[in-house]
Amino acid sequence: MSPEMIALLVESLGETLYMVGVSAAISTILGVPLGVILVTTSRGHILENMPVNRILGAIANATRSTPFIILMVAIIPVTRVLAGTSIGTNAAIVPLSIAAIPFVGRVVEASLREVDFGLIEAAQAMGASPFQIISRVLIPEAMPSMVLGLTLTVISLIGYSAMAGAIGGGGLGDLAIRFGYQRFRVDVMIATVVILIALVQLVQSAGDIVSHRLNKK
Amino acid sequence: MIRLEHLQKIYQGDTGSLEALRGVSAHISEGEIFGVIGKSGAGKSTLIRCINMLERPTAGSVIVDGEELTTMPERQLRDVRKKIGMIFQHFNLLSSRTVYGNVAFPLELAGKSAAEIAEAVDPLLELVGLADKKHQYPAQLSGGQKQRVGIARALANRPKVLLCDEATSALDPQTTHSILTLLKDINQRFGLTIVIITHEMQVIKEICDRVAVIENGLIIEEGSVVDLFVRPQTPTTREFIRTIINHDMPDIFSDIKFSPVPVSGSSLMLRLSFIGSSANEPVIAGLVRRFNVEVNILFGNIDHLKSTPFGTLLVELSGEDAAIQLALNYLNAKELGIEVIGYVARNDRVAG
User: Is residue B6 left, alpha or beta, with left meaning phi > 0 and alpha meaning psi from -120 to 50?
Assistant: First the structure.
């Protein structure tokens, strides 16, 4: 493989990491509160509010049931407003984040639900406010499980980011399509696949280690 | 310290409503250990959770340390709850925090500084005997140790009341005993009012001063533990007592017919119960010395209700019919619980 090709691979990897990193950060910042609201507003929970719960749940489901490639195209007008363009790495971050927010929300919801309600009651009995229960009981107790969920999100985002390449989003997926597929460069195709596999392995292992460290059970 | 007035709690479910409490009233004085015993589903859990408003009663009032809690807004209730400690059957410790972190937790919630917390936590760990486990996580502790952390945590805000929700039900008998001893010690040292709900009569027997028996959402019997043991009024109470004190006749008497009235040449079977100072009196020796009767002890049991000695004896008196009557009169004059089981022909007894 030529040095130019290797430079291109490195550049594409950088773009993938950038897209995945930024969208993972955005979706975590917005998805964790979504998950918290989905749990705490559910029936019998500390901030029970069924209308809010149903509406947010419906939005999350609608977003998650739309295939990513369709979502990406469908929200191009929104992308244009938010990123100023509909092509390129920055533009790809918009649909990636929008797809990942409800994903994170559901993953966080599932993790928080695993926390024994007895702990919440114990905190209530000690005079904890709902906010204290969320920040000092629910989130710390669910942290090991949430880290695994966020790992899963990052891995999904790596997959989605490759799809973003199909509409000119840049990154490894874009490279694989333009060189590996359209120019029959088998070596490029293999190289991108190997990099993606290594990347996913790395993310998963890191997630497992962090989760294990946090888990005191 | 705690007054419960006509508490009622109705759960509305999809399939209908369930009345968990049907007008429960109780007064718990300052510094006493009050037990509530009942079978599962009797409403005891609901009752204790109404005391700190983890469950809001449907009707009635809860007054703790002079404050009416049922009408109190949530925010104010949080401050009151800081003065009511609670421990749980399954401990409910935070798995992500160390022993120290768990005991510090209520102090953090109350907005105490790190220095104040450090000052308060160490003596508490000392009190419950876990100073050496300070940096361990709950998963590394045994059940009894976890409950000790629970107790230290419940005491962190120096509460006036401690609520124990089946606190020993998940523990083995030895551990239960050591936890109860700790609770008794805390009660005496700090004058803490303790409310214990349980389904184990052993718990009531070991540490409670007064007890209420709850069934179907109602208190069916209430009184001092001693009274309850000596004069149980309801079948449920008797059933609970039977779980720890054997009142049954030994098997060898199961097919013997007893006559309620004296039969010539028969012996008399009696069950004597002793309580408090009468347990220390040499009643049997006195009987033998004064009357020409033989006393045969068939079954005996001496126990303690908290610190009051309590015993039962199953005895057979034999001798001249007149002597037996005199002996019975003598016993009746003593402060004893006497139950005449019946007269049995001596031949039958031999055959038995």
Answer: left
Within chain B, where are the H helices? 44-51, 74-81, 99-109, 114-127, 143-155, 173-190, 201-207, 225-230, 235-242, 283-290, 321-333, 346-351
- What tokens appear for A84 in the block? 């100023």
Q: Are strands B266-275 and B218-224 parallel, antiparallel or unpaired?
A: unpaired
Q: Is B82 on the interface with A (CB under 8 A)?
A: yes
Q: Rg of chain A over CA atoms, in angstroms?
A: 20
Q: What's the whole-number average pLDDT of chain B?
A: 89
Closest alpha carbon to B323 in B287, B291, B289, B346: B291
pLDDT tens digits, B97-121? 999 999 999 999 999 999 999 999 9
- Tokens, residue B125: 């760990």
B54 in reach of chain A (CB within 8 A): yes
CA distance B183 to A60: 49
For an interface test with B, the pick among A111, A115, A121, A126 (most B C-beta atoms closer than 10 Å) comes out as A126
Rounded to whole angstroms, the Cα distance separating B160 from B348 reads 60
Neighbours of A4 (CB within 10 A): 8
Residue B195 and residue B161 in contact, taking contact as beta carbons nearer than 8 Å? yes
DSSP state of A166: G
The encoded tokens of residue A134 equal 């969320």
Closest residue to A119, CB basis, from B80, B81, B92: B92
**B94 contacts chain A (CB < 8 A):** yes
Q: Does B88 touch chain A (CB under 8 A)?
A: yes
- Residues of chain A with Cβ-Cβ distance to B111 below 8 Å are none
> Looking at the predicted structure, is the pLDDT value of residue B346 above 80?
no
Q: Which residues in chain A belong to E strands, given as ranges?
A: none
CA angle B333, B339, B345 (to 5 degrees): 110
Both tokens of A88, joined, read: 């390129």
Q: Judge if pTM exceeds 0.90.
A: no
3-state secondary structure of B222: strand
- C-beta atoms surrounding B260 within 10 Å: 9
Contacting residues for B117 by C-beta, under 8 A, at least 6 apart: B104, B107, B108
